[in-house]
Give the backbone structure.
Amino acid sequence: MKIFTFTFTFKFKPGILRTTMIILSGGTGTPKLIDGLRNLLPDEEITVIVNTGEDIWSSEVFITPDIDTVLYLFAGILDKTRWWSIIGDTYNTYHQMKELGLSEILMLGDRDRAVNLARTDMLKKGMTLTEATADISKSFGIRAAIIPMSDDVITSMIETPRGQMHFQEFWVTHKGTPDILSFEYRGIGEARLSPAAKVALEKEDCVIIGPSNPMTSIGPILALPEIKEILKTKKVIAVSPIIGNEAVSGPAGKLMAAKGLDVSSKSVAALYKDFIDVFVYDIRDGVLNPEDIEKMGIKAVALDTMMTDEERRTELAREILKLFNLLSV
Amino acid sequence: MKIFTFTFTFKFKPGILRTTMIILSGGTGTPKLIDGLRNLLPDEEITVIVNTGEDIWSSEVFITPDIDTVLYLFAGILDKTRWWSIIGDTYNTYHQMKELGLSEILMLGDRDRAVNLARTDMLKKGMTLTEATADISKSFGIRAAIIPMSDDVITSMIETPRGQMHFQEFWVTHKGTPDILSFEYRGIGEARLSPAAKVALEKEDCVIIGPSNPMTSIGPILALPEIKEILKTKKVIAVSPIIGNEAVSGPAGKLMAAKGLDVSSKSVAALYKDFIDVFVYDIRDGVLNPEDIEKMGIKAVALDTMMTDEERRTELAREILKLFNLLSV
């Protein structure tokens, strides 16, 4: 727990609270929040540190799904019905491959495949994932900083009764149905926080931990060395991806249960308790007792976190920016 | 030279001469002739041994352009305006890659890319190119036998004043403009004729050497060990890809000149003289003296080899089948 007495300067423009913001993001919930933030802050004042623990080699390319989602969001081409892939993309290669008996783990659109081919080409030429991401960002005219959590390869592996499998295989190929015996971030022991992420974190005061899966999206970021110590020195607001005893989307619940955790916002807060200042939970959450959060020394704030349309995404983002303001009072 | 006294049995059906036929093929001229043959013979009686000397790794896939052309021809999806690629294919990945600054040496369509991805996947799993080609043929419902000349990697490299480059780079990227100082089939020293091609050749009597580039299409096939000795025991008809002093299409002329050869049908016949029985040249060829061919112990036959429409392709194929018949009289 930190004392709320930072010198913390917001830049204002009429009616809109502004600051430079770092967001830790996975692939679905947090991009929705970023979508809202983009209506309040110029892109160049947004830095996103993105989970890479779900990265996978498939069809000869290195796919980093969460980075692609964030890239497409800022490029203005994200399919916001699915919150992954490029809007209007075609799937001609995918379907022809299927006819030839080759099923891809991830369904890559034709333009999406090009992005992954470009990235793979850069990595093979010796660029880091951070450099490749910056290069692709530039081509798309993106002004936000999109930074992979690490330049090292970390792979989320799930142990199931059917054997060990990559998280994407579990989630996409098997639709999340196998029981989870355990899971691990393979490679995390040797991985480092990406230097660019470290520099960005050193420069900024405000960090949002988005409503992404605390096990496979935020978990790998927090498992990197140094990151928790750095977050302890920042103003950090986390948004819960759980309402009651269920994840808003994705396999977070099943993965938390596999770690012996209650599927609840309280469990999420407990995971983050050493380095967050405010914990945002959903107004519909009938299970959470905010006093349990306050007992951890964290301010609990109930907000509408169901970001089902752009207005609600912007509203949640606005409330979070206000909370940062309050933190500095 | 062989004496024309084989026991040679044609199977007839009313009006159409039939036999099982092996064709040595490159990527443009010969597929046109095969297109004609398909109107006279059922596909299962056609075996094509295809040049692989122009194969190239590009965009993470192993592209074997001549095999793809023959595959698409038999699958009924070849773009017969260009004589490469799939008709109606889209180029969404290609264009998106270009926007990201990544130019492909070969312009792959989206469905075409899928075929190359499937092949690459099979090769990486340990299949030979022959097996991968058979697998893809089966998926396309192809009944002809399409056999790569070799399962080993042979790469046509061109030495130019701008440096050494892959044949495809010379022909596609640089549009065939650099001077050719020399060229080589890299890897040919260790390469073997594919076992399937050898078995097919042992079984059949009739071989057509199609009107493909004698340097980069037919040349690599003939440079493989054993093939010339095998051809000496067969009835072989070769079709010249040269009319007068020019190649009908492609860079054959420039490559022949680089080898110190006259660009002429006579030069082509001289390259093939040890193992062909009949040499077909174009009725428009004002340079060739057929007596020069006959002096090599080869029958010279003037035919219309400009296969600009399906009727003319079928007509040339029909004349060639008739010639095989005459060979056995």
Remarks:
- Chain A has 13 helices and 16 strands.
- The CA atoms of residues 55 and 258 of chain A lie 21 Å apart.
